[in-house]
């Protein structure tokens, strides 16, 4: 089955700096890669996703890049703010006939220091 | 903006008891999922449901688990005989198409 590795497990940055979180996946059939933000005790919230026919996607301060050959994808947050502090999960999705089963990484706890 | 809802928010049960976790997916969504997250760990896929049947399930989803869509709005997860290791946060998710999944707030299950 799919295996997703995520690094680093914790990340501290100064407010205004950039943060980068990296993930690798094992199943070359995976073709959908979402990123979720989870604040303490709350639901995972989708912040950005990318499909395997796209190499990069940007949404304001958040960007995701995908390298299919190397089987890795990364989340970039620029101009970080204290409210960006949360646990971020990457996931890889392999589509079947009726659904996408998501395999998650172990998460990165991001702390933005004011 | 519509959201996935789940009830109850917390459930405490005795080992061996049956529990039913309830979810109301977003109304025009067609795909439904259950995930679980043991405290401090990653989110794990349990099962997906489409067109009134299970489409995928993980090895976690054994014979003790079942899902049902009893009416046009609810989606339930039943654990027949709970074990201590079933203690976790259970998230329901739904998607309109086969990709973007929106998560509910979760049910925290504690098995004593």
Please describe the structure with a list of short key phrases separated by commas or semicolons:
heterodimer, A: 114 residues, mainly beta, six-stranded mixed beta sheet, five-stranded antiparallel beta sheet, 11 strands, 59% strand, B: 112 residues, seven-stranded mixed beta sheet, four-stranded antiparallel beta sheet
Low-pLDDT parts of chain A are none
Q: What level of helicity do the residues of chain A show?
A: under 10%
Name the chain pair with the biggest interface and residue counts per chain.
Answer: A-B, 26 and 27 residues
How many strands in all of chain A? 11
Mean pLDDT of chain A: 92
- Main β sheet profile of chain A: 6 strands, mixed
The structural class of chain A is mainly beta
Distance between the termini of chain B: 37 Å
Per the principal axes of the C-alpha atoms, what is the gross shape of chain B? Answer: globular
β-strand amount of chain B: over 45%
Helix count of chain B, per DSSP?
0
How many strand elements of chain B?
Answer: 11
Q: Major beta sheet of chain B, specifics?
A: 7 strands, mixed
Q: What spatial form of chain A do the alpha-carbon principal axes imply?
A: globular
Q: In whole angstroms, how far apart are the ends of chain A?
A: 41 Å
Instruction: Give the helix/strand class of chain B.
Output: mainly beta
Kindly report the oligomeric state of this protein.
heterodimer
In brief, what are we looking at here?
The complex is a heterodimer of chains A (114) and B (112). By secondary structure, chain A is mainly β.
Reconstruct the topology from this structure.
The complex is a heterodimer of chains A (114) and B (112).
Chain A: E1 4-7, E2 10-14, E3 19-25, E4 32-38, E5 45-51, E6 56-59, E7 62-67, E8 72-77, E9 86-95, E10 100-104, E11 108-113
Chain B: E1 5-7, E2 10-13, E3 19-24, E4 31-37, E5 43-50, E6 53-57, E7 65-68, E8 75-79, E9 88-95, E10 102-103, E11 107-111
């Amino acid at each position: 089955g799919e295996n997703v590795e995520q690094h680093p497990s914790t990340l501290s940055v100064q407010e205004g700096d950039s943060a980068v979180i990296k993930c690798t996946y094992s199943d070359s059939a995976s073709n959908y890669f979402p990123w979720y933000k989870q604040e303490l005790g709350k639901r995972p919230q989708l912040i950005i996703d990318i499909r395997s026919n796209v190499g990069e996607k940007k949404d304001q301060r958040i960007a995701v890049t995908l390298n299919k050959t190397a089987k890795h994808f990364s989340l970039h947050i620029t101009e970080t703010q204290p409210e960006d502090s949360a646990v971020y999960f990457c996931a890889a999705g392999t589509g079947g006939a009726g659904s996408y089963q998501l395999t998650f990484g172990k998460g990165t706890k991001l702390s933005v220091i004011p | 903006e519509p959201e996935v809802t789940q009830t109850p928010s917390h459930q405490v049960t005795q080992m061996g008891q049956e529990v039913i976790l309830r979810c109301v997916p977003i109304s025009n969504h067609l795909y439904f999922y259950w995930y679980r997250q043991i405290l401090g760990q990653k989110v794990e896929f349990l099962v997906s449901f489409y067109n009134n049947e299970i489409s995928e399930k993980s090895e976690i989803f054994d014979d003790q688990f079942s899902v049902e869509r009893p009416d046009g709005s609810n989606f339930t997860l039943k654990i027949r005989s709970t074990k201590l290791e079933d203690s976790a946060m259970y998230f329901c998710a739904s998607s309109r198409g086969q990709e973007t999944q929106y998560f509910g707030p979760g049910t925290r299950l504690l098995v004593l």
